[in-house]
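Example for tutorial group B:
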């Protein structure tokens, strides 16, 4: 790949990103009412994405091996607890990751 190909790829990616980020404003901006389905998706997708991330993160966890189960359960528990307490995704994900990483190192 030469420099022109790299520049072209970056420009295309940038234009697609700008288009996708501005599309909702162009379609439903101003006085147009946002369709109920889009509002529903906006409310439900964060929960669905979090559920998919939990499944993805726990996919290789063995339920019979305690050195695998305890760190994963503790990480998920800390993440869920701090999220319920503080309602801050950054704090909860950071704390859960730290707990998980410490536990897998000491177990």
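The residue assignment follows.
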């Amino acid at each position: 790949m030469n420099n022109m190909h790299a520049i072209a790829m970056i420009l295309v990616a940038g234009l697609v990103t700008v288009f996708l980020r501005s599309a909702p404003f162009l379609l439903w901006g101003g006085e147009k009412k946002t369709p109920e389905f889009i509002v529903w998706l906006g409310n439900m997708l964060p929960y669905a994405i979090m559920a998919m991330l939990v499944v993805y993160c726990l996919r290789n966890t063995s339920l019979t091996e305690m050195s695998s189960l305890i760190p994963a359960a503790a990480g998920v528990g800390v993440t869920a607890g701090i999220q319920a307490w503080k309602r801050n995704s950054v704090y909860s994900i950071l704390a859960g990751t730290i707990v998980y990483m410490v536990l897998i190192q000491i177990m």
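DSSP finds four helices and no strands in the chain. Compare this with the pattern of hydrophobic and polar residues in the output above.
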